[in-house]
Amino acid sequence: MGFLFEEKEDRNGKYAEITGYEGRIRHLLIPKMVENEAGLILPVRVIGSHAFDGREDLCSVELPETVHTLRSFSFFNCVHLSHIRLFDSIEDYYDGSFRQCRSLQEIDVRLLREGRFQILRDILGDSDRQILLHLTMEKGECALLFPGYVDKVRENTMARQIHDTIEGCGYSYRQTVGRSQIDFRLYDKHFQRATYDTKEAAVLIALCRLRYPMELLDWAKEEYLHFLKEEGEFSISFLLEEGEEEWIRYYLSLEILSKEACEKALSLLWKQERPELTALFLAYQEKHFPKKKEEMFFDISEL
């Protein structure tokens, strides 16, 4: 069992095109090099068309920086694929490479060169579902949440017209990613709409921007903090239900949680029987909302 590949050659020399994998595998790590039958070591530069199409075993995929091409439908309809890790070395992203990956939730991209965001735009354009994007760049780390959206097509047979409508702010958020840059200012401007369209996603959008404040302006920071403070009970309940322990810890570090939101969290945690998180909220409660000690009075005549 192992990787299947074809030997190819271009002006840069011989290379391998991965065409599949024999056997079952949950976490697919594409190698940088493979060895052919003659013992020649070949760099892996291409993932072939339909190479992993329709596989139900894949949960995560990691591509090395040697890969520069993803051909058509290379990971199409991998229904359990939830996490992708890759580099900006991919220059050719063919139609549908990650389309219909209905469980896709997170994408980690390492940007080795400035101004190479096309791969982000391509993958985001292939999915209408909510995706958390992690970026590692020379100037630091960044995390951005892109909400989902619904593209509805209605046909008016009498008038012979087709009406295309998009519901949800996810499409607008995707338009902030260009070929050579991300428009962070425009991304932040979409937040008010997100709070109306999908409040759950808005919680994660705010936390991501505050934790990784790349090009975050003061007005946007204040807007995110205000939302998390005003919607504390909703936000903390959502994070607890989703089991987002890392984001819960970060939320507490902001020290904006109200007394009511803290009490709400504690009531939920007692039911969930999560002692470690319960202890964190109890410590937060003790620090920010300490109970007043009753004054003790003594009648000195009785002494």
| Level-1 CATH class name of the domain at 1-101 | Alpha Beta
Mean pLDDT: 90
- Number of distinct helices: 10
Percent of residues in β-strands: 15-25%
Biggest beta-sheet profile: 6 strands, mixed
Can you tell me the CATH architecture of the domain at 1-101?
Alpha-Beta Horseshoe
Fourth-level CATH superfamily of the domain at 1-101: Ribonuclease Inhibitor
Q: Helix/strand-derived class?
A: alpha/beta
What is the β-strand count?
14
Roughly how many Å apart are the termini?
Answer: 88 Å
Order of helices and strands: EEEEEEEEEEHEEEEHHHHHHHHH
Question: What is the overall silhouette?
Answer: elongated
As a whole number of angstroms, the C-alpha radius of gyration is 25 Å
Q: List segments where confidence is low: pLDDT < 50 over at least 5 consecutive residues.
A: 295-300
Helix residue percentage: 25-40%
* CATH topology category name of the domain at 1-101: Leucine-rich repeat, LRR (right-handed beta-alpha superhelix)
Pfam families: LRR_5
InterPro entries: LRR_5, LRR_dom_sf
Protein name: Leucine-rich repeat domain-containing protein
